[in-house]
Amino acid sequence: MAQQRLVEGIFALGGAMILNEMNERNRGQNTAPRRTQQVDPATAQRAAEEREQMRLVQVRLNTLGFDAGSPDGLSGPKTRRAISDFQASIGMAPTGKLTHEQIAVLYQQSAGIGGGHVGGPQPVYPPSGAFPALVTPAAPPMAATPAFPSLGTPATPTAVAPGAFPALGGAPTPPAPAGNFPALAATAQPVGVPAFPTIGTPVAVATPTNPLVAGSAQASQALPTATSLAEEIIKTPFVSADKQPAILGVTLGSTAEDFTLMLGENAFGNCTGAPGAQQCSRQTATLSDVVKGWVAADGQLWAMARLIQFNEPVPADFIHGQFTQTYPELMAAPGGLVSSGEACEVNAQSVPALAAVFDQRAGVPEATEVPSALLDMAVQCPLAYSLAFNEGNGHVAAVQVLFFDGTSVVRQHVAAHEALQTQLGADLKF
């Protein structure tokens, strides 16, 4: 029952039926003499949550064209009629009360809508054309996010500073600097629950111990040749750019404007950014969701990352079913990785660690050389799509998604190399 309530809380399953029954009881009680009674805080909180669940159902019904009236969280005749019309549209008996399965269909058909802000506080939209270098919007601090709990243990709320994100682990960590992707702390885990793997510190290039002498020059290293995203996509099961995986409708090669628009449409806020990178987040009653994108000088996205952390662990079979609908190829691929490079191993590294590598390129002049660790990754992974779960004991604690266009990194490297040669040619005098 606890697992069922958890699933229902995340996807609002069963919220409509519970609220309908409460309304029926309340109407029956209205005929009895009024009496003063003590309201249990837990009961009041549960009622508020159920009303919010009904409000979200009303929002989605309205979005699909079934007029449920103003999304106030109360199930009246108009809402029941909208539910009946929706049930009839999917070939079900129009009872006016949604079953668990019917609510799942409702959410599936209305997937991609903002949903959480209609009738409530409006989302903070990133300013149009302000990618990157977004200014954190002046808005009330986001609700405190619980630190990641051990499986089976209720989450303990931990205050989170605006713009920060809690690390996975038992103890809170200091807020990350603005623009950093949230880190997953590798703290003690319950037996059978692997922590996210971490990427090792990039190997520094050793400084030559001997000075150059006459005749000791080495031949220059050949530049990587994979510079076309379209040609690399053909090598994957996706074949064409329009069929590649997306994060909320945005794919690799999309423009910065597309990315910014997607954030606004899906109620992301609390945005931070630096030249060449932008990160925004959203929080709900059940999860925290962070999305970050990196854009090249040509205005196209060359990397995207998403980290979803559940406030409480979620049954794995349910989450796997949801992601199979969205990313069937990644769910079927070994290790959740599809890449055009045979040596690609990004699925063995955590999204926060990879984001730190990507950030080495963000905010630097276009003519600056690409960091060696990032260039090596681009050579090994000309194109990569990765999906990973932090799970154990039949539950999922977090989901991480990463898309990486190494061909763009190679193009950036070639451009920086040519710019350096041009500058050297102008500086050298003979």
Describe what this molecule looks like in 3D.
Among the domains are: 2-29 and 42-109, Muramoyl-pentapeptide Carboxypeptidase, domain 1 (Orthogonal Bundle), CATH 1.10.101; 229-423, no CATH class. It has twelve helices and seven strands. It has helices at 2-11, 15-29, 41-63, 77-89, 100-109, 229-234, 256-265, 316-326, 328-332, 351-359, 372-380, 406-427, and strands at 269-274, 277-283, 287-295, 301-315, 337-339, 383-392, 395-405. The protein has a seven-stranded antiparallel beta sheet, with helices on both faces. Strand 2 (277-283) and strand 3 (287-295) form a beta hairpin. The radius of gyration is 25 Å and the shape is elongated. The chain starts with a helix and ends with a helix. Residues 10-14, 114-130, 132-178 and 184-206 have low confidence and may be disordered.
N-to-C CA distance: 82 Å
Characterize the main sheet.
7 strands, antiparallel
Task: Output the helix-strand order.
Answer: HHHHHHHEEEEHHEHHEEH
Structural class: alpha+beta
Helical fraction: 25-40%
Which spans of ≥5 residues are poorly predicted at pLDDT below 50? 10-14, 114-130, 132-178, 184-206
Residue-averaged pLDDT? 74
Strand order of the largest sheet: 1-2-3-4-7-6-5
Sheet-strand content, in percent, reads 5-15%
Count of runs of 4 or more consecutive helical residues: 12
Q: Which radius of gyration do the C-alpha atoms yield?
A: 25 Å
Q: Quick one: overall form?
A: elongated
Instruction: Let me know the number of strands.
Output: 7
Q: Tell me the quaternary state.
A: single chain
